Amino acid sequence: MTKVILSILCLMFSGSAVASSIFKCIKDDKIVFSQHSCPKEYRQHKIEYQLGITTETDSDKRSTTIDPLQALLQKQTISKERLLQLLDSEVYRLKQENSYFEILRASELQKLERNRYWQKKEATDPDYLESIQEMNTHFDNLITNNASTIIMLADRKEQIILETTDAE
To answer: Can you spell out the DSSP letters for the chain?
Structure first.
């Protein structure tokens, strides 16, 4: 059961930083996970994920979820606090992704090293060195892309904070 919840949360976390809560709908021995409130015949638990912390609340009170994109499309606004919270969660997600890239890089390097060993090639073999260079370039590009996005998000956050303090 825990594995199911963990896998759903991981999928949710990797796909989007916006979807910070899901609903666990329970009826008899049947459990269904949804991004929307559960139907009336189901009991409802709300699972929230934010900044690495997961909380599950037993809540049969129905709530209407507002998708931020839908709110913008319908010309509704997102509060400054919510926007700052979304920016923080995206920055956190990108930092986690960079850490994950470093783990993948180490794993890929071990894989290349094993292949080199079993093929009885030297550590100075041109093909081996080229594959290491390609791997490093790939992961460096991914990390650099995330770092530039983090900088843009931090700049946007500062701009929003300045706008908020100037308005007061």
So the answer is: -HHHHHHHHHHHHHH-SS--EEEEEEETTEEEEESSPPPTTSEEEEEEEETTEEEEEE--S------HHHHHHTT----HHHHHHHHHHHHHHHHHHHHHHHHHHHHHHHHHHHHHHHTT--TT-HHHHHHHHHHHHHHHHHHHHHHHHHHHHHHHHHHHHHHHHHH-
